[in-house]
């Protein structure tokens, strides 16, 4: 049988071996964890880059849409101004015609009711 000292030495060697294995496992785990952290940082940087590009794209689209809406509102405003000018011209034309009629004193024709003769003979067929 082995002595007590030999047993203690064997146990100490086992503890050291287990500690070495645990240290190696911890180091491997730590390395994998740092690799995952690096991968996540790269993904985050890529997402931020894409979002930045999308924000610029959205800003450009918004500015383009704003310009289009502004131009369309200008066109609509110009069309309404043209319509208003036509109505003003028609109104002025109508006012001028009315003034001309009043100045020339064109009599207004009045409608007389029809008068029927009471002794009308309606031909009959024989």
Please report which band the strand proportion falls in: under 5%, 5-15%, 15-25%, 25-35%, 35-45% or over 45%.
Answer: under 5%
Quick one: biggest sheet?
Answer: none
Order of helices and strands: H
Number of helices: 1
Radius of gyration, whole Å: 52 Å
- Number of DSSP E strands: 0
* Beginning-to-end CA distance, first to last residue: 163 Å
Unreliable spans are: none
Helix content: over 70%
Shape: rod-shaped
Please identify the structural class as seen in this structure: mainly alpha
Please describe what this structure looks like.
The chain is mainly alpha-helical. Helices cover 80% and strands 0% of the residues. It is rod-shaped, with a radius of gyration of 52 Å. The N and C termini lie far apart (163 Å).
Keywords:
126 residues, mainly alpha, 1 helix, 0% strand
Present the secondary structure layout:
Blueprint: H1 4-104
Short note summarizing the structure:
The chain is an all-alpha fold and 126 residues long. It has one helix at 4-104.
């Amino acid at each position: 049988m082995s002595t007590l000292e030999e047993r203690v030495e064997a146990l100490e060697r086992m503890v050291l071996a287990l500690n070495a294995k645990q240290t190696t496992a911890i180091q491997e785990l730590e390395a994998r964890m740092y690799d995952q952290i690096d991968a996540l940082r790269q993904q985050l940087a890529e997402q931020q880059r894409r979002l930045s590009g999308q924000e610029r794209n959205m800003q450009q689209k918004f500015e383009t849409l704003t310009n289009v809406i502004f131009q369309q509102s200008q066109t609509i405003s110009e069309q309404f101004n043209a319509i208003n000018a036509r109505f003003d011209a028609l109104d002025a034309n109508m006012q001028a015609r009315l003034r001309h009629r009043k100045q020339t004193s064109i009599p207004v024709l009045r409608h007389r009711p029809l008068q029927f003769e009471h002794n009308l003979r309606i031909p009959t067929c024989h």
